[in-house]
Amino acid sequence: MSTIETDPVDPQVEVLSARDVPLGGPRAMTVRRTLPQRARTLIGAWCFVDHYGPDDVAATGGMDVAPHPHIGLQTVSWLFSGEIEHRDSHGVHAFVRPGEVNLMTSGYGICHSEVSTPGTTVLHGVQLWVALPEEHRHTGRDFQHHVPAPVALDGGEARVFLGTLAGDTSPVPTFTPLLGAELTLRPAATITLTVDPAFEHGLLVDQGEVTMAGTALKPAELGYLAPGPTTLPLANTGSTPARLILLGGPPFEERIVMWWNFIGRDHQEIVAAREAWQNASDRFGSVTGYPGDRLPAPVLPGAILTPRGNPPVAQAG
Predict the structure, then answer these.
(1) Which of 67, 6, 93, 35 is closest to 252 using CA atoms?
(2) Which family does it belong to (predicted)?
(3) What pTM did the predictor assign?
(4) Helices H, strands E: what count in the chain?
(5) Which residues pair with 68 in a beta bridge?
(6) Cβ partners under 8 Å of residue 15, min gap 6
(7) From CA 87, how far away is CA 287, in angstroms rounded?
(8) Is residue 196 domain-resident?
(9) What is the tally of structural domains in the chain?
(10) pLDDT in tens, 165-204
(11) Domain span at 224
(12) 201 lies in a domain?
């Protein structure tokens, strides 16, 4: 669901509401998904925003996502609490921990598993995808890990895991210009960030009551602002700390097909990728060390999958 705010301070902030989605097959956990949705497919090259927790693992069982494939994208994992064990067909065995970014590139094809560790009591974080541009979407498998240092803001702090913000630049390479950062704001704090006017921006609220360029956002909502502004004013209007994820990038002009864990450009490409996975093709490789079977692909819909993009971007005032 999407609504356009009519706040007189800045009427151009679009508020995207989350929907609940089961993730991970038979032992699914529920996540809150704000991107993609009918009103908006991408923010920059960011094409997928899942927000989950705080999840009491003792009650829910936590995360157990069996080996599954990807094409045409990068996964960006960021935690607030808990720990996830990652294994992939690039041979990487790593852990996702709070304040540490793990970026996996699928390109032509990869598969991986994600399991919360036995010591995790509360699982809480975001899972993000980035669409790869045409010239790089068949690139080879890769994995990057980075621990960003906190950067002091006047009223909070930032951890920049991709791109540049507040004088800090992440060393993690990307195929299109991107911004990804965790922000924390102290109670009643107001900050103004200098941002790239060529970027569109999305602000996901994890906790707290905040405003983005004058528009109120509640927890689990994603605020969108079109390119144009050189500054982004944010305010914590509540009496407790606020935690936010800021995403950005120049508008991604390519139209994409998103189905299951694949990003392609047309229906036949998705059909071919699904067939390769179902037939255990070398295209995706295999995961070593996961104690169970891999996820089968769901049945394709009866209709032809058609490419989608965003509506034309109007510059924000």
Answers:
(1) 35
(2) Belongs to the pirin family.
(3) 0.93
(4) 2, 27
(5) 112
(6) 2, 3, 4, 5, 215, 217, 221, 222, 223, 224
(7) 6
(8) yes
(9) 1
(10) 999 999 999 999 999 999 999 999 999 999 999 999 999 9
(11) 2-249
(12) yes
